[in-house]
Specification:
The structure is a homodimer. Chain A has about 230 residues and is an alpha+beta fold. Helix content of chain A is about 35%, strand content about 25%. In chain A, the strands form three sheets. Chain A has a four-stranded antiparallel beta sheet with strand order 1-8-3-6. Chain A binds a DNA duplex (30 and 30 nucleotides) through α6.
Chain lengths: ~230, ~230
DNA sequence: CGTAGTCTTGAGTATCCTCAACGAGGGTGG
DNA sequence: CCACCCTCGTTGAGGATACTCAAGACTACG
């Protein structure tokens, strides 16, 4: 259903090695694919859980996953959506701090045993550079998340969310956006209530900024209207 | 005035290399100090600016810095406070995406030319591992930020902010907290208005959760009351 | 076809933002 | 040394926004 998509952030391609050609992170790291194990997950199935030993890194091949945590008051918070080509599971801790579950049925994830990848990186500096680049991309995603959460109004948050999803999901400038996640997921991602997400989408629709093909297929009519 | 403090996140010490002793990141990377240049900055002075070439990494030696950006509507958002021992400036982009300025007068920062550090990492896998570990710590900080921003109520945000500052600033469990930044900085960090920050602190004070030695020295009377 | 989960809309209330005023503290200049 | 200015911090009043609770429509799936 979903094609495997690599390197959604082309603007983030490693340009810092002036002598080297600009290559995709996935390409840079093709050599670690030899130690990867691929898993296929059902909807809601867990990839790893909080407190699980931090002994693998991961990459979404197709589908989507959500990284989440449960607050003490019972509210769920989604820290990140993981999309095809994106690596995750990096932690400075011995254990993972979040749960990661598949958002859609049939999500495929590549698992990399960390010690074996570390060993590869030890033997080949280029792999080490690739890993660093990947973790820098993760930092970039998280900082972008913080900017979205930093908006004052829910309408801005939802607009910025749609813009982020367009950015991350379609390499071509396709104005049609497929939101694989539920409204509840979006709400827990933006830290607003489900009703507020729904209302904000309605406002954007009434304004003519977007239109619905169906509940999860959205056409972006006025991309610039989403930015604020 | 401020002592140099390394490795504030001891819980994040590299425990993933079972055979190796658990060493501090700063220690792991002592070999890169040979290429560092130390700068001393005045209050508000810029360490790097948006669109500056991404050719250095940095570490706060003493004092504090803020990483910020300006939204299109003129509002400033602070993405991170940088504290002694913390590394920053990692980006997958060719340019930096944020401004970083010193919060207090006399902030000292160590600057590492990226290409020279990369070259060192190429020649010594241990340095590469240390760099990865450092970027993982940065990821951990950003995820913690997202959790704080994810709180619904301003009082929770401010409480979580104080808890984070206690966590990050005092290695010993000293209940006195020095907030080097202004209320405006806190507001832009938590994405609430200055007035709301002020009111929340007042509420916490009236509740007996905290008390003020002066405007920027806070005693934490009931740490658990901050968490929610 | 029925059930459970999802999505939307409405009503009422609580929170937070904006505008405004005032006080405290530090620095500068007369 | 004091007056003045400027920034920062606090508090109040009013209004806008978002949350909670509730109900109903729609969808997916068995």
């Amino acid at each position: 259903m979903l094609a495997t998509k690599h390197e959604p952030q082309d603007a983030f391609a490693p340009g810092w090695q002036d002598g080297a050609p600009r290559r995709q992170a996935s390409e840079l790291l093709s050599s670690i694919e030899s130690v990867s194990v691929v898993r296929r997950l059902g909807r809601g199935e867990q990839i790893y859980g909080r407190d699980d030993p931090n002994d693998h890194w991961y990459r979404i091949v197709s589908g989507m996953a959500r990284k989440s945590t449960l607050h003490s008051n019972g509210r769920r918070q989604i820290v990140d959506f993981l999309m095809p080509g994106e690596y995750f599971g990096f932690s400075a801790c011995r254990e993972h701090l979040f749960d990661v579950e598949a958002v859609v049925d049939g999500t495929i994830v590549a698992c990399y045993p960390r010690r074996r990848v570390e060993a590869l990186a030890d033997s080949d500096p280029e792999i080490g550079r690739g890993l660093r680049q990947i973790s820098f991309q993760s930092i970039g995603r998280l900082q972008a998340r913080i900017l979205i959460l930093g908006h004052t109004w829910a309408l801005e948050k939802v607009g910025a969310f749609l813009a982020e999803m367009v950015e991350r999901s379609s390499a071509d400038s396709n104005p049609t956006l497929v939101l694989l996640m539920s409204r509840y997921d979006i709400a827990d991602y933006l830290s607003v209530s489900v009703e507020t997400v729904s209302r904000a989408l309605t406002v954007l629709r009434r304004r003519g900024s977007i239109s619905f093909v169906n509940k999860h297929h959205i056409k972006i009519l006025n991309p610039s209207a989403l930015q604020c």
